[in-house]
Amino acid sequence: MRAIEAELLGCLPDLRAYARSLTRNRHDADDLVQDAVLRMLNSADRYQQGTNFKAWAFTILRNRFLNEFVAKRKLTQEMDDSALERVAVSARQDEGLELTDFQRIFHSLPEDHRSILALVAGSGMPYEDVARILGCAVGTVKSRVHRARAALFALLEEEHAGESKETPRFHRSTTLEERRRLCG
């Protein structure tokens, strides 16, 4: 049991970030994580040592979300400051995308797009682990990530289409690290 507790503590920040991307609300995310952690501890005997603990934990969290939060439609637009930091762009003056703009646009994406971006870009999980969590093929994960990123970029571009040429915009040339920071 101690090994599972140590592994759980190690992935708790990522679980909380993922839960926040799903629920869009700090309080609901905390409730979801607590519920999932209890489920993990109660079913610790089902975890097979040597397998990917993080994928197992994220799968339980996602299933709890699907069973509880989607069914109850408790999703809201609220997001706290610590979650905002995970999607923040750098504070340079020449940034054309405001954090509040990104937050609004990111949360306007469908849940499946937000979820896949949070897992891949936000948590930095390999496609193979995400495929295990979602119960699909790696190729399916890749195509979903592509569609989610395309939808996000389209919304970002649409948001800033009317800006002057002096105002920099968010472009597809943004580095992978910046994308992870933005979508996390």
TrEMBL record:
Residue ranges constituting the RNA polymerase sigma factor 70 region 4 type domain according to the UniProt record: 102-152
Name all RNA polymerase sigma-70 region domain ranges. 12-73
| Record flagged with keyword Transcription regulation | yes
- InterPro entries per record: RNA_pol_sigma-70-like, RNA_pol_sigma-70_dom, RNA_pol_sigma70_r2, RNA_pol_sigma70_r4_t2, RNA_pol_sigma_r2, RNA_pol_sigma_r3/r4-like, WH-like_DNA-bd_sf
What are the UniProt keywords, alphabetically? Sigma factor, Transcription, Transcription regulation
What residue spans carry the region label Disordered? 164-184
Q: State one Pfam family annotation.
A: Sigma70_r2
Domain of life (superkingdom): Bacteria
The protein depicted here goes by the name: RNA polymerase subunit sigma
Can you supply a Gene Ontology BP term from the record? DNA-templated transcription initiation
SUPFAM superfamilies to which the protein is assigned, alphabetical: Sigma2 domain of RNA polymerase sigma factors (SSF88946), Sigma3 and sigma4 domains of RNA polymerase sigma factors (SSF88659)
Describe the family membership recorded for this protein in Swiss-Prot or TrEMBL: Belongs to the sigma-70 factor family. ECF subfamily.
State the species of origin. Answer: Teichococcus deserti
Q: One MF term in GO for this entry?
A: sigma factor activity
